[in-house]
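# nightly structure sweep
# worker-07 picked up a monomer target from the shared queue
# config: single-sequence mode, recycle default, output format = structure tokens
# input follows
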Amino acid sequence: MEDLQSETESVLCSIFAEVLERDSVSVDDDFFQTGGHSLLATDLLHKVRAAFKEPRYRKLPFSQIYRTPTAAELARWLEGAVRETAPTPDWSGGGPVPLNSQQTDMLVRHVFDPDAPGQHCTLGWRVEGALDLDALRGAVRHVHQRHESLCASYRLEEQAVAEPLNVPAPGVTALEAGTPDEASAVLHAALAEPFRLEEGVIWRVVTVAVGGHTSHLIGIAAHHIAVDGWSESILAKDLGRAYHAVLTNALVLDAPAPTMARIAAASIAPVDAAELEAQRAHWRTELAGVPALEYPAAPAGAAPCAPEVLEIPLPVGCLDRVERRAEELGVTPYVALLTAYGRALAEVTGQRDFGVGTPVALRGDSALDGAVACLIDVVCMRLRLTAGASFAEEAGRVAGTVRRAFAAQDVPLAEVVQEVNPPRDRRPPLFQNMFALQNTAAAELDLTGARSEFFRPAPFGLPSELVAEIWPFRAEGPYLVVSHRPDRVPADCARLLGRRLLDELDLLAVRDQPDPS
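# output follows
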């Protein structure tokens, strides 16, 4: 290993090695080319902030890891002149707190169509064994009181704000059905009931007894403005622990959950004005003239309808082989999967230049790890693929695109759209499809005296016309899920995309192949 140049570099190398689970890391090793990815980068961020808390060091934003991914570069940045950033407001005295950009968009949509279920996030479990409804009601009350996001008023004032309310817990709606299919339909209808965000009606819990009292479906619906994918496992864990405590007359010994004021303050990235302007300039250049994605045989003038979902189990060991191949190529697993998705989508649509939306977590502060809240934004990756290029060549270019995009993620998507100012029509601007590696913890609901199995109820809406997701941590194994709006994306197109993506992953796991076209 190279001689370390400073104490800062030495500490950073130790942190890099710890996070990457390596014996040692040199000052010039690129975090993302030595096994790092976005989740590990979050861990790295927390550890670096904890180690360099003194005022002489600059406070590290998540995006900076992508701009300075080696210990040497990061040390120079941390030791650089401390630049003035906007002061973090103090909302600890109570009152409303501002919503982030995505939440603001969700609230506006809700105000214009308050009865639409398209922004409901849903979770489900199949439960076998005794289910104590009184204990479940008690657990729901505990979770409701624990997380302010679930009992708050979301409203439009001079800006979009949320304010905790003293509103009662939603209770548990207990229903019955004769067959599993009937139970699924009953649950789906109950979860679709509208919310009233201004009044603090944010979430609900529904049970459906299936043909008796030892088999149940449990469903949770919550408005997306209050929860995100990261929140799901927290919600399930808290509900299971509280259920056990109520059932056994024990105390729930949870650490306090962060308040909405703490969440709002912790989610502000410490980025100075000059850096933000550089990020805006990146987006204006990168996304200028990005073409809209056109699907083959897309129906013209079709009325909006419920999404359709295609679930495809991935072959045993597929993602392990993809991870090994990604390491060989010096890219992250996400980059390898996004490259495979882009190549598959290019083959299906015939386009090689298009935007792909990907969700990003706004959880750069460790205080947010246990927060049930909507802390996400979306970044647009512009893929420019080349006919005849090998996977390795494409992955290298996609890696650069991803690195630059994540380095500029402090500009919210809504502001990016304003900066780029693309032509507007009824379709989403910049990108009409999304890809996500859903590698957050599984939503495991541990109910004392019963067995539970997670399932995802059918969605009521989608954030884009086409959404492809890789779910690595399902109990039954990893899955590819392709969801689409049939009024924009024909079912044959979605199925073909799924098959082509599986083909790309299979080729990727075996050897580098030229573009089949």
